[in-house]
């Protein structure tokens, strides 16, 4: 067994501390009478006011709708691309692999501007549909690489056995391949949803007038100042994200237990 390195362990815990301390401080501010005074006492008034603030709930629901639709579209495109190219992934030219990875490496400001110019060239009205398509276009690359690694772990003999038993290609996909990559699908969907939900730059370029997502709304409110309601909203988002991660981990752990018998 390899001996642990105390220096590396210390750096790891320091990094975790620096990452999570702002989150815990934000959660603490949510329950303070005065968010800037730790001795002001605890309260639930800010969460109650949040639930009575329609100006925040409408952008939140818009972001949720866009996130769900764009994540589903990205998972569909990315998974089909990975299934079709998994056998040739090692043979693909570097240029093709670079094109697939390009949306990940490009700065979002460049991606957003290029998508805006593309939609204007096609004379497509900017709005809900363009934001969904824009988010799905760059999320699909992330899903592709996740599903590619997931498919490489599958035993190729399962598909060959199904083919020998008379299964058609689409039956192999639905009855053999997809049931064995469900954890990857869930992970890819959650990643695509997260990328879409908290995206600002691409939404800023492709939303047009009349459509406001939650990041755009928060940006407009930040010009006035941070309000306790925003802290409460952030707290709810942290709870939802934590729940989704725990759900994904529990599903993966249950699958491992079933496979081990």
- What does the radius of gyration come to? 22 Å
Average pLDDT, all residues: 81
Q: Secondary-structure element sequence? A: HHHHHHHHHHHH
> What is the domain tally?
2
The CATH class designation of the largest domain is: Mainly Alpha
Measured as a percent range, the helix fraction is over 70%
Short summary:
The chain has 12 helices and no strands.
Structural summary, described in words:
This protein has twelve helices and no strands. The relative contact order is 0.14. Helix 3 packs across helix 11 and helix 9 runs antiparallel to helix 12. Helix content is 77%, strand content 0%. It folds into two domains: 1-43, no CATH class; 55-260, MetI-like fold. The chain has 261 residues and is an all-alpha fold.
């Amino acid at each position: 067994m390899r001996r642990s390195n105390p220096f590396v362990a210390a750096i790891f815990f320091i990094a975790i501390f620096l990452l999570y301390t702002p989150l815990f401080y934000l959660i603490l501010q949510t329950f303070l009478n005065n968010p800037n005074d730790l001795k002001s006492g605890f309260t639930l008034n800010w969460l109650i006011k949040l639930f009575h603030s329609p100006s925040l709930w409408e952008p939140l629901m818009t972001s949720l709708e866009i996130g769900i639709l764009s994540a589903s579209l990205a998972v569909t495109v990315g998974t089909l691309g990975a299934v079709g190219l998994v056998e040739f992934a090692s043979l693909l030219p570097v240029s093709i692999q670079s094109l697939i990875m390009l949306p990940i490496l490009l700065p979002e400001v460049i991606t957003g501007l290029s998508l805006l110019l593309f939609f204007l060239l096609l004379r497509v009205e900017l709005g809900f549909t363009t934001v969904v398509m824009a988010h799905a276009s760059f999320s699909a690359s992330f899903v592709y690489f996740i599903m590619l690694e997931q498919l490489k772990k599958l035993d190729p003999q399962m598909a060959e056995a199904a083919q020998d038993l008379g299964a058609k290609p689409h039956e192999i996909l639905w009855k053999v391949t997809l049931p064995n990559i469900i954890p990857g699908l869930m992970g890819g969907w959650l990643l695509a949803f997260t990328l879409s939900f908290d995206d600002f730059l691409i939404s800023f370029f492709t939303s047009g007038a009349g459509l406001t997502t939650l990041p755009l709304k928060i940006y407009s409110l930040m010009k006035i100042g941070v309000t306790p309601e925003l802290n409460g909203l952030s707290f709810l988002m942290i709870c939802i994200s934590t729940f989704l991660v725990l759900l994904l981990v529990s599903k993966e752990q249950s699958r491992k237990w079933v496979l081990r018998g």
